[in-house]
């Protein structure tokens, strides 16, 4: 009995490992053009750039501990550095080689366990395809999670702490309990976003609104994930624009969120441009449209902005998320009147409350 259980477990494990590897029908050989490494205190990201989509498998080997990624129907470009040392506790070295005629093998020396790495393909951007390999702390910032990690303070986590009790009604609590919600405060770190006439940087109100919103949702019993809690980039640096956006999308997709809400400020050359817009993906679902519309209407109700409508778009974060998603342009940071709202505590809180009300309305009707 015990033995058969053991064999059964092995079979299950093997099946899982097989499912782990992604299978695409790649017809022609892809060229692996570049190997890049970025590194921060949380994780190491290794990226290989390819000129077309690549089928890959990964598996772990021991003594020494390493993770192997085989890229099938692939050829290594000649000028690639074959061996690079990594200065990180999560990985010490990466090697890349033409393992077989049509297989490029990447070997990462690392002793992180299965839960400590993640490998995924990214389509599009400046290169047609890339395979990203993350090693280290690959869990996402969960606000109010039971792990207690939310108290760990990062160096620039100062002015934006939200420590207050919001007055949340019973209905909101019953509607939001257990809902998984990813909030994406636009821009951050090296990317200020648009800048207003008095110097308000888009990345600051988006974070303040996001943190207030996160706190309200958390106090309502929702499970809240936020792509950044501080003034920081989301992807380990250096990263391309697409990698930065993909890192935000990853938070929504990998936490299996019910909705994804990206918060931005609009900007235009003319200072008179004004108002609030809700965006959703061109080919998005009717739920995405509703989410975008309700959140936009919630915000307008709170801060009294002009209604620019609910519009379709191809914004990366609404296009690549696998759940109903919206990108909200709260107001125009380039408009002096709206910049003043976005700068004020009152305006920030009301904007957050407006988004919150839109989310409650959205889930009330499901
Ligand atoms: Zn923006």
TrEMBL record:
Annotated SMART domains: Ami_3
Gene Ontology biological process: peptidoglycan catabolic process
GO MF annotation, one: N-acetylmuramoyl-L-alanine amidase activity
The keyword Signal is annotated on this UniProt entry: yes
CDD domains assigned: MurNAc-LAA
Position of the signal peptide: 1-25
Superkingdom, natural source: Bacteria
Iron as UniProt keyword: no
Name this protein carries in UniProt: N-acetylmuramoyl-L-alanine amidase
Species in which this protein is naturally found: Megamonas rupellensis
């Amino acid at each position: 009995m015990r033995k058969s259980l053991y064999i059964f477990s092995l079979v299950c494990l093997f099946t899982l490992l097989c499912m782990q590897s992604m299978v695409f029908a790649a017809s022609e050989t892809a060229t692996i053009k570049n190997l890049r490494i970025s590194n921060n205190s949380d994780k190491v990201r290794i990226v290989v750039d390819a000129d077309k989509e690549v089928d890959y498998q990964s598996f772990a080997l021991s003594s020494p501990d390493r993770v192997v990624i085989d890229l099938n129907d692939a050829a290594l470009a000649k000028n690639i550095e074959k061996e690079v040392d990594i200065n990180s506790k999560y990985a010490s070295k990466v090697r890349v080689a033409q393992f077989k005629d049509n297989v490029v093998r990447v070997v990462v020396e690392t002793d992180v366990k299965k839960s400590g790495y993640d490998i995924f393909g990214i389509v599009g951007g400046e290169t047609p395809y890339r395979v990203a390999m993350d090693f280290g702390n690959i869990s996402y910032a969960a606000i109010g999670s039971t792990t207690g990690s939310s108290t760990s303070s990062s160096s620039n986590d100062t002015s934006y702490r939200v420590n207050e009790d919001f007055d949340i009604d019973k209905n909101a609590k019953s509607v939001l309990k257990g809902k998984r919600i990813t909030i994406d405060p636009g821009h951050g770190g090296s990317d200020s976003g648009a800048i207003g006439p008095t110097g308000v940087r888009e990345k600051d109100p988006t974070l303040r609104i996001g943190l207030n919103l996160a706190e309200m949702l958390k106090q309502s019993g929702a499970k809240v994930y936020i792509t950044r809690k501080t003034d920081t980039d989301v992807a380990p640096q250096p990263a391309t624009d697409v990698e930065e956006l993909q890192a935000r999308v990853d938070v929504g997709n990998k936490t299996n969120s019910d909705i994804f809400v990206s918060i931005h400020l609009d900007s235009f050359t003319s200072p008179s441009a004004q108002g609030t817009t809700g965006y959703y993906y061109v080919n998005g679902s009717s739920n995405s449209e509703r989410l975008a519309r309700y959140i936009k209407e919630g915000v307008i109700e709170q801060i009294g902005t002009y209604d620019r409508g609910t519009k379709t778009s191809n914004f990366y974060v609404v296009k690549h998320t696998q759940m109903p998603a919206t990108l909200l342009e709260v107001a125009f940071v380039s408009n002096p009147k709206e910049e003043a709202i976005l700068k004020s505590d009152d305006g920030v809180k009301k904007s957050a409350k407006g988004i919150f009300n839109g989310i409650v309305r959205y889930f009330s009707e499901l």
